[in-house]
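Quick one before lunch.
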Amino acid sequence: MIRLGIIVGSTRPGRKAEAVARWVHGIANKRGDAEIEVVDIEEFKLPLLDEPIPPSRGQYNNQHTKVWAAKIDSFDAYVFVTPEYNHGTSGALKNAIDYLYREWNNKAAGFVGYGGAGGVRAVEQLRQVVGELQIADVRAQVMLSLFTDFENFTIFKPGPNQEKSVNAMLDQVIAWGGALQSLRKK
Ligand SMILES: Cc1cc2nc3c(=O)[nH]c(=O)nc-3n(C[C@H](O)[C@H](O)[C@H](O)COP(=O)(O)O)c2cc1C
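Model of the flavin mononucleotide complex:
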C-alpha cells in the first residue's frame, strides 16, 4: 500500500483546514487502499525559510528542516488541503513546500480547496508550484464552498456530493502514487 500524507495547509488560529483534513482522512481511511496520515504543518514550527543553501541541493542545516524533510520523504503521495488567501494558497503552506525539493520529486498530489469560490484559485496557483517540484498533480479536485459546505461560514458541514468528489480525487492520487514508486526506485 502506498503512504498518503494529507497536508493541513493553514496554521491560522481558528483555521478551518484541520476539520477539512480530518474529514478527508476519515474518507480515505474507509477505502483501505493506502496508509493515511494527517500532516499538520503547524506542528513543525517552520520559520520563514531560513536555510542558506537552496533546497534543490539537499544540504539542510537546521533541525526543523531535517524533521520536516524526513516526514515528507516518507510518503508516496499527498493531498494538499488549502485555504484561499487573496486568490492564492496560504503563505504557511507555500513556505513549507519551499523548504524541500528531492523529498517531493516524482510523487503524486491531489488538492482539496475551500473558499468563497471553492478555493479554485488557490489550487490553480499550487498546481504551478508543484510542477516545479516534479509532483504529478491529478485532475480531480475537491472544491468546498464557504457558502454551502460551512454553516454560517464557520462550522464545516460538507454537502452530500462532496464525499464522492474526495473519492474521485483519491482514486487518481492513489493510482499515480503507486505508479510513480517504480520510477523512484530506478
Ligand atoms: C488573509 C485572508 C485572505 C483571504 N482571501 C480570500 C480570497 O481571496 N478568496 C476566498 O475565497 N476567501 C478568502 N479568504 C477567506 C478564507 O477562505 C476563509 O477565511 C478560510 O476559512 C481560511 O482558511 P483557514 O480557516 O483554514 O485558515 C481569505 C481569508 C484570509 C484570512
